[in-house]
Amino acid sequence: MVKSIGVGLLGLGTVGAGVANIIQTPEGRHPLVSEVELIRVAVKDLQRQRKASISSTLLTNDPIEVIDDPSVEVVVEVIGGIEPARSLILRAIKNGKSVVTANKAVIARHGEEIAAAAKEAGVYVLIEAAVGGGIPIIEPLKQSLGGNRIQKVSGIINGTTNYILSRIEKEGAGYKDVLKEAQELGYAEADPAADVEGLDAADKIAILSALAFGGPINREAIPTQGITNLNIRDVEYANKLGYGVKLLAVAESLESNNHKESSLPLAVWVQPTLIPKEHPLAEVNGVNNAIFVEGDPIGEVMFYGPGAGAGPTASAVVADILNIAGISRLGSKNNSLDPLLEASSWRSCNLVKAERIIQKHYLRLKVEDSPGVIGQIGSVFGQNGVSIQSIVQFDANEAGAEIVVITHAVALGKVTASLEVIKTFKAVQGLSAQMVCI
Amino acid sequence: MVKSIGVGLLGLGTVGAGVANIIQTPEGRHPLVSEVELIRVAVKDLQRQRKASISSTLLTNDPIEVIDDPSVEVVVEVIGGIEPARSLILRAIKNGKSVVTANKAVIARHGEEIAAAAKEAGVYVLIEAAVGGGIPIIEPLKQSLGGNRIQKVSGIINGTTNYILSRIEKEGAGYKDVLKEAQELGYAEADPAADVEGLDAADKIAILSALAFGGPINREAIPTQGITNLNIRDVEYANKLGYGVKLLAVAESLESNNHKESSLPLAVWVQPTLIPKEHPLAEVNGVNNAIFVEGDPIGEVMFYGPGAGAGPTASAVVADILNIAGISRLGSKNNSLDPLLEASSWRSCNLVKAERIIQKHYLRLKVEDSPGVIGQIGSVFGQNGVSIQSIVQFDANEAGAEIVVITHAVALGKVTASLEVIKTFKAVQGLSAQMVCI
Questions:
Q1: pLDDT in tens, chain B (438 residues)
Q2: What pTM does this model have?
Q3: Does A375 touch chain B (CB under 8 A)?
Q4: Which residues of B280-310 are buried (b: 16+ CB within 10 A; e: fewer)?
Q5: Distance from CA of B39 to the nearest CA of A (A)
Q6: Which of A151, A330, A337, A344 would you mutate first to test chain B, the one with the most B CBs within 10 A?
Q7: Are A123 and A266 contained in the same domain?
Q8: What is the enclosing helix (H) or strand (E) of B91?
Q9: Contacting B residues, span 159-178, partner chain A, CB-CB under 8 Å
Q10: CA-CA distance, B343 to B98, in Å (whole number)?
């Protein structure tokens, strides 16, 4: 008889119930699932109706009871939020238990502290469910791409905004209408700020960057722009020019070829972004997520799937539990950890200022419909070293016209300098929108 | 000072050289790469010019010297083919060394024998590079999806045929012309049979099925049809009806809901397949590969990337080396293995006969352009319980016309029975093409 591995669950919401359901129905799954035993489950309210049928003897409303139970070897934290999640995770680690969490907010902000504590205690903290829902992305980054120099990670990693943008793009519906419907359908929270303002995506790209580039990321320094100010007109123009619009989270190495900088310079940002329709990310619709990784020598790989939901997220949580169960079979000597699975940081990273980032820019200008205005604008960009990919006039009528400029890749500083001159032109009424393109 | 891990390389072709290049330039990669040491390299011809600069003291033309070298802990087999690869792998295992191989042919045919030997010796045999080139798919299947009941794995897993099909579709060029160009560009071998006849894809789906469903697959029993007889006309018709054509490899569980059958019935096949243009697999072009996995509770996930090439394949080989290096840090007790990483089989699978497989079918019939023929044909399908999704007449002229039928999902047997009647009609000159759709 093989020894089972005891799991304590903190939280029995949709994800927690999904995890319990998998553990309780092991037939047809990997045989290791049948060795996972649910020991103790902490819930907020002992009386509430549950989505999983859990013996009431396992339930407690005191998470400490779960963490301190000597039969619990792995603590699964699916409460969410910063506190008490952070303290509970640290206490579990201190108790010598490995932790599995879906909590991106706490990992993006306190990942370093948690990783250091785990290293000291000789336990694992696995976070597959924190990014991309069910998509295997954390473990592949840690265990399958280690031979590469990662150059760039680009992701559609917030399902709510992708659902909203997909519907805006498909139906020409307005942002507010779609958001309201998404809330009614349960795809958006009653308070949608974390999603629509890009904060959730910023948490996740902070986590992905730290893994891909091997160093902790200052979450608060990530320039983040959500979709709340996105104008449907820009979605339409982007479509006409052969682009889709997605809320993209990007982390890119700006290292020069000699690999000599003591701290790796990274450009990390979250922003509505024009994506060429032939790019694989442009086809990612609805609540799906996708993460695109570029590295040397692998080239480009993409991981695609359901970015949220009880089932997919529970699948990711159980994957982490199984990984710990599998490795615990080996019986490690003197608290040593698998260096791929522990994912400690191995270099220092720094986020560069927005001005240093080289990107293609999308600009929409409101202008008088007068001959020569395109030429004037084009000249200014040329004088500032901004090379133009396309400049197109839309919707000319007596009230004026709109000019959409897409630049080649260039530092934001040069675009800003050009715009300062362009805005002084009599024929130019103002800059109506600014985005980036990949 | 951390102990390094000694690697012996069998083969120094493009993939072997790629692996050596990664190991010899660890800067900017995961720090574990710098602990991998190339101990010994077996090559066929000691005099040949190399793509990697290897000290001549490491080279030998005797693979046994590599395998028997006591400093070699991991043997990397990138020779390819069945023998001597199989014997060398078994000898390395017997010597107590873990093996990393990119050899799909030997794993598809002798995987069971090799896995049993590895289990007995307490070593790992890792095969990430055998399917999907650089795409992490083997380890995610083993380590990230174990909580799921896998229902279906569908893959575009042969880069050569996908390159050829993409060009046929895009340019309307003929199969033979594109094949010739692909050969000149190095995307197809001088003898392209293994690729264009679907044998390589069948090897790979055999490997993926065994991992996804947990039981060995009889490679020789996989119904396999390549692209050599694919008519450009069917690609055009498919396009008009909203489909792309891909060489698809599929493995699907036919298990009933009660999970009670002692051996899991699987439908496994390789065949040119119509894929709806909105399906993520339809967008996989050129030499790229993609593997689409459906499971409960994860839903659908897709892994996409370069399916071949020295760099991507070397990335996958190094991932496996790092996994072994990482786990060897733990110092396993009494030859125990991580049950996820060892990937032994845990149930029995059987391949069902083609007649039991439920699919949508594409049929092209040559007919006289006479009124009523569509009605006649439709009636026969109806009488045989075949429900029709669409029936369209193309290219009517004095020489006749062509009718394309796409059925709803139905067992092949019913389609075959219908066709036997339809072929007897005076107005029907023959069945020109038959494919399946997803």
A1: 456 899 999 999 999 999 999 999 999 999 999 999 999 999 998 888 777 788 999 999 999 999 999 999 999 999 999 999 999 999 999 999 999 999 999 999 999 999 999 999 999 999 999 999 999 999 999 999 999 999 999 999 999 999 999 999 999 888 999 999 989 988 888 899 999 999 999 999 999 999 999 999 999 999 999 999 999 999 999 999 999 999 999 999 998 755 566 899 999 999 999 999 989 999 899 999 999 999 999 999 999 999 988 999 999 999 999 999 999 888 766 678 999 999 788 999 999 988 888 999 999 999 988 888 899 999 999 999 999 999 999 877 777 899 999 999 999 999 999 999 999 999 999 999 999 999
A2: 0.95
A3: no
A4: bbbbbbebbbbbbbbbbbbbbbbbbbbbbbb
A5: 18
A6: A330
A7: no
A8: helix B85-94
A9: none
A10: 14
Q: Nearest chain B residue to A27 by CA: give it.
A: B259
Is B162 found in the same domain as B268? Answer: yes
Please tell me the total count of domains within chain A.
3
- Same domain assignment for residues B131 and B148: no
For residues B336 and A333, what is the distance between their CA atoms, to the nearest angstrom?
Answer: 13
Q: Where in the sequence is the domain holding B197, given as residue range(s)?
A: 140-306
Whether B204 sits among the annotated catalytic residues: the reply is yes
Assembly ipTM: 0.94
Distance, in angstroms, between B32 CA and closest chain A CA? 8
Whether B24 and B144 share a structural domain: no
Q: Is B336 on the interface with A (CB under 8 A)?
A: yes
pLDDT tens, position by position, B27-54: 999 999 999 999 999 999 888 877 778 8
| B172 and B252 co-located in one domain | yes
Q: What pLDDT does B257 receive?
A: 58
Average pLDDT over residues A199-217: 96
Task: Report how far apart, in Å, the C-alpha atoms of B272 and of each of A423, B167, B309 are.
Answer: 57, 15, 23
Work out the minimum CA distance from A193 to partner chain B, whole angstroms: 27
Same domain membership, residue A166 and residue A39: no
The enclosing domain of A281 has a CATH number of 3.30.360.10
Q: Is A262 on the interface with B (CB under 8 A)?
A: no
What is the C-alpha separation between A250 and A234, in angstroms, rounded?
21
Flag whether residue A214 sits within 8 Å of chain B, measured between CB atoms.
yes
Using alpha carbons, list the distances in angstroms from residue A260 to A256, A265, B27, B36: 8, 11, 9, 22
B281 touching chain A per CB within 8 A: no
* Residue B232: burial class (beta carbons within 10 Å; 0-12, 13-18, 19+): middle
Check B331 against A329: CB less than 8 A apart: no
Q: Do B331 and A336 touch (CB under 8 A)?
A: yes
Q: Most A CBs within 10 Å: which of B14, B35, B128, B330, as the mutation test of the A interface? A: B330
- Same domain assignment for residues B302 and B416: no
Which residues lie below 8 Å from residue A109, measured CB to CB, with a gap of 6+?
A82, A203, A219
> What is d(CA B264, CA B214) in angstroms, rounded to the nearest whole number?
9
- Could A143 and B319 be called an inter-chain contact, meaning their C-beta atoms sit closer than 8 Å? yes
Tens digit of pLDDT for each residue in B288-345? 999 999 999 999 999 999 998 899 999 999 999 999 999 988 876 667 899 999 978 8
Q: CB A148 to CB B255 under 8 A?
A: no
Q: What is the CATH number of the domain that holds A416?
A: 3.30.70.260
DSSP 8-state secondary structure symbol assigned to residue A227: S
Chain B residue numbers touching A326 (CB-CB < 8 A):
143, 338-341
**What count of CB pairs under 8 Å joins A to B?**
225
Asked if residue B407 and residue B286 are part of one domain, the reply reads no
Q: How far apart are CA A103 and CA A203, in angstroms?
A: 10
Distance from CA of B253 to the nearest CA of A (A): 11
CB contact under 8 A, A301 and B136: yes
Residue A246 identity (one-letter amino acid): K
Question: Is the separation of the CB atoms in B158 and B130 below 8 Å?
Answer: no
Contacts of B346 in chain A (CB under 8 A): 30-31
